[in-house]
Amino acid sequence: MEQAPSLRSGPHDEAWYAARASRGVQGLKAYDPGHDLVALRRQSGAAQLVELGSNENPYGPSPAARAAVLDRLHELHRYPDPLGADLKRALARVHGVGEDELLLGNGSHELLMMVAQVFAGPGAEVVYPRYGFAVFGLAAQAAGATARVAEAQPRTDAMPAGHDLQALLGAITPATTLLFLANPNNPTGTWLGADALRAFLARVPEHVIVVIDEAYAELADAPDYRSALALRDVHPNLVVSRTFSKAYGLAGMRVGYFVAPAGLVAVMERIRESFNVNLLALAACEAALGDAGHLAWVRTRNREERTALVGALQARGLRVFPSQTNFVLVEFGDRTAAVERALVERGVILRPMGGYGLADCLRITVGTRDENRRLLAALDEVLA
Ligand SMILES: Cc1ncc(COP(=O)(O)O)c(C=O)c1O
């Protein structure tokens, strides 16, 4: 039988289609999600993998979220509420904001792409920091905008590769429409203190929409950490991005949200796909928001395990970046690639950082006590 031509090679291959794509997309590389976990799980058979590559919450969501999902299974033939009104009401209560100041996304990833699509196009510039979340660059480029990457602070023992706020301000020009900054940051785990963030925002010109990505905010408990939500009154150009994927343990449900000025939300609503957040996800997130106890428990467990893991890694002579998240960035130097490969062979999955320009580091999600113990045991074998 004749073989169907591959879309990646042959007369109508990837290059053929790329030549027909918009300018921004022509130069893009697809988001690198790390290892093919499904294939690895299949290979490992009965032996469970230790999956510490994607900054997921190993404890899962509130039991109330699971119950809410089961409760809605009889409605699968219905479209979800296109307005997400119940979830917005719940979020508005939690954050003390108006429902019209909330935008729901199929993960915050979707909203980060959308905000660039709406506010940055050809001719516009988008500023974000070196070692910022990979989606910032993707969003800028896909929109056809020009990316301006601000250099990070040099690595030191005190605060390695932290955001250089001066460099970010210096990268802003009259053509800048959008600035992305994650606090705490992925992939470094580092954070900006409240004073630094306030002083920074005060110096960003009002024509620039600032998106502070707070995917890990619920897990941050450093005395100097504050959410940018408190600064919204002072800065009409401020957007705060949050997600249910991390502290709420609902990564599989794909829900994120923006807290932003009502006018900005209204403009972004013009391109939001009407049913972008599904029925089960809406129910799960609303229920999860109602269980503050579970969130507090996750936060405590994560802090305890993070502290223990950092100590154990440091005791092995490794340099660990300070973190306010559920992951740590660790320097392995020249042996990074070999260590990573050897860990995969032992069923331990971490995230290689070559794509971020940090090829001498691995990012390690803080797992449960048992997962961390298995990671450390495998690491001891590999480093021996
Ligand atoms: C900083 C940051 N922002 C946004 C996201 C995207 O989260 P989601 O699309 O699951 O809401 C992630 C995911 O890892 C992240 O690390």
Automatic annotation (TrEMBL):
<feature type="domain" description="Aminotransferase class I/classII large">
    <location>
        <begin position="49"/>
        <end position="379"/>
    </location>
</feature>
<feature type="modified residue" description="N6-(pyridoxal phosphate)lysine">
    <location>
        <position position="246"/>
    </location>
</feature>
<dbReference type="GO" id="GO:0000105">
    <property type="term" value="P:L-histidine biosynthetic process"/>
</dbReference>
<comment type="pathway">
    <text>Amino-acid biosynthesis; L-histidine biosynthesis; L-histidine from 5-phospho-alpha-D-ribose 1-diphosphate: step 7/9.</text>
</comment>
<comment type="subunit">
    <text>Homodimer.</text>
</comment>
<keyword id="KW-0368">Histidine biosynthesis</keyword>
<dbReference type="InterPro" id="IPR001917">
    <property type="entry name" value="Aminotrans_II_pyridoxalP_BS"/>
</dbReference>
<dbReference type="InterPro" id="IPR015421">
    <property type="entry name" value="PyrdxlP-dep_Trfase_major"/>
</dbReference>
<dbReference type="InterPro" id="IPR015422">
    <property type="entry name" value="PyrdxlP-dep_Trfase_small"/>
</dbReference>
<dbReference type="GO" id="GO:0004400">
    <property type="term" value="F:histidinol-phosphate transaminase activity"/>
</dbReference>
<dbReference type="InterPro" id="IPR004839">
    <property type="entry name" value="Aminotransferase_I/II_large"/>
</dbReference>
<keyword id="KW-0032">Aminotransferase</keyword>
<dbReference type="InterPro" id="IPR015424">
    <property type="entry name" value="PyrdxlP-dep_Trfase"/>
</dbReference>
<protein>
    <recommendedName>
        <fullName>Histidinol-phosphate aminotransferase</fullName>
        <ecNumber>2.6.1.9</ecNumber>
    </recommendedName>
</protein>
<dbReference type="InterPro" id="IPR005861">
    <property type="entry name" value="HisP_aminotrans"/>
</dbReference>
<keyword id="KW-0028">Amino-acid biosynthesis</keyword>
<comment type="similarity">
    <text>Belongs to the class-II pyridoxal-phosphate-dependent aminotransferase family. Histidinol-phosphate aminotransferase subfamily.</text>
</comment>
<dbReference type="GO" id="GO:0030170">
    <property type="term" value="F:pyridoxal phosphate binding"/>
</dbReference>
<dbReference type="Pfam" id="PF00155">
    <property type="entry name" value="Aminotran_1_2"/>
</dbReference>
<keyword id="KW-0808">Transferase</keyword>
<dbReference type="InterPro" id="IPR050106">
    <property type="entry name" value="HistidinolP_aminotransfase"/>
</dbReference>
<keyword id="KW-0663">Pyridoxal phosphate</keyword>
